[in-house]
Specification:
Strand 2 and strand 3 form a beta hairpin. The chain is 25% helix and 24% strand. Helix 2 crosses helix 3 and helix 3 crosses helix 4. The protein is built from seven helices and 14 strands. The chain has 379 residues and is an alpha+beta fold. A five-stranded antiparallel beta sheet has the order 1-8-13-10-11, with no helix packed on it.
């Protein structure tokens, strides 16, 4: 017999609500326009196919021609390899990389060859093949500015880029104060990307791409544009934070981007999976966590995309005559707030009820929660 769902829903007819005022028109910034364009163009991410049998006849012909031109242009595998993969070997890993260059130039072989030549020259001059093992410093930037963190729903490694810390003038000068410092930062940024590339499979049907999530807030545009322009094949997805759950599970998204993952979580092994649900306009959702024993401690995380609704938490004892305890009083949660994280130790057996009230809105919102109950160790 299946267990009943912990989620109960109360609906309020939408026609009973006063109509929400239309937002006032505003002048969009360059960053806002760029972010909206990116989200419209990427409703979902689908890995390109690298199975030769799935290619069109013209694409197969271009791949064969590309292989021939490489053999004519380079004398040895050592001159024509990337990420430890000899590109003239003709095996499936080499084909994955060659197809990336062909697709970047719409299967125009001469253009793809020129692009590959430039990339190989740049990697040799830059020392990209050995950069992963170099200690470049920048400890203060690790896990803050550019860092690999988790995977998307399809298993692609995710790299987060957040440059807002550079609005601090002291740090800005320390990192970008002159041309040499900027070059050193570029080497570090490439190092982060190269380490991420080591997580890829480079095989048909495998994971062959990195997801880049770039936070443009307070970004010093000139310096970082210069740095980014120097990194070949540097692909970004720029996305509003509450869209990330379309690509990445909430327990794998950092809290500052609308997820449930906090830095301390990474010290405790793999993240505890979250339960996802939707809150429709006109609905109030109650999440009931039952079976909590006296003396047990329950810890929970909950987030709703774009919040702007009411939230509360209460403990309801099982015993008749006991009073319901308002663990968190009803309050309006602002759109910019991160996930709520809280704990409660019960004195008696009962259940925890987490409530999100979206009855004042017509908009559907995505949400997620997770919890863990630790029994009392007192005998």
């Amino acid at each position: 017999m299946e267990a009943s769902s912990p989620i109960s829903i109360q609906q309020t007819p939408l026609q009973d609500h006063p109509s929400e005022p239309s937002p006032k028109p505003y002048k969009k910034s360059f960053v806002t326009t760029l972010m909206e364009a990116a989200t419209l163009r990427t409703p979902s991410f689908k890995e390109d196919t690298y199975f030769i049998s799935h290619l069109k006849s013209s694409e197969k012909k271009a791949l064969l021609e590309f292989r021939d031109k490489l053999s004519a242009s380079y004398d040895s595998d050592s001159e024509c390899s990337m990420w430890g993969i000899p590109l003239m070997s003709g095996d499936e890993k080499a084909d994955v990389i060659l197809l990336k260059f062909l697709r970047a130039r719409d299967f125009r072989v001469p253009d793809a060859l020129r692009m590959l030549d430039k990339c190989l020259s740049w990697r040799k001059e830059f020392g990209a093949d050995s950069i992963c093992e170099v200690d470049l410093g920048f400890k203060e930037l690790e896990g803050v500015v550019a860092y690999m963190h988790g995977y998307d729903r399809e298993g692609h490694p995710v790299c987060y880029n957040a440059y807002g810390v550079f609005k601090d003038k002291e740090m800005y000068e320390r990192i970008f104060g002159d041309e040499e410092k900027l070059k050193k930062f570029l080497r570090w940024r490439v190092q982060v990307l190269e380490r991420g590339i080591k997580l890829l499979n480079f095989k048909p049907g495998g994971v062959n791409s990195i997801i880049q999530v770039t936070d443009l807030k307070d970004m010093p545009k000139r310096e970082l544009r210069v740095a980014s322009n120097q990194i070949p094949l540097f692909f970004k997805i720029i996305i509003l934070k509450w869209w990330l759950v379309r690509f990445i599970r909430p327990e794998d998204i950092p809290v500052q981007y609308g997820g449930l993952c906090r830095p301390s979580d990474l010290q405790n092994g793999p993240p505890k999976p979250a339960s996802e649900f939707a809150v429709k306009g006109g609905e109030k959702v109650n999440i009931q966590i039952e079976g909590i024993e006296g003396g047990a401690t329950i810890t929970w995380d909950i987030v709703v995309g774009g919040w702007d609704l009411e939230y509360s938490a209460e403990f309801v004892p099982n015993a008749e005559g006991s009073y319901t305890i308002a663990v968190e009083k009803i309050r309006q949660v602002a759109p910019s707030e991160e996930a709520i994280h809280n704990s409660y130790t019960s004195r008696e057996a009962g259940k925890m009820v987490l409530s999100v009230d979206n009855t004042a809105s017509k908009r559907k919102k995505v949400a997620a929660y997770r919890y863990i109950v630790r029994k009392s160790t007192v005998v």
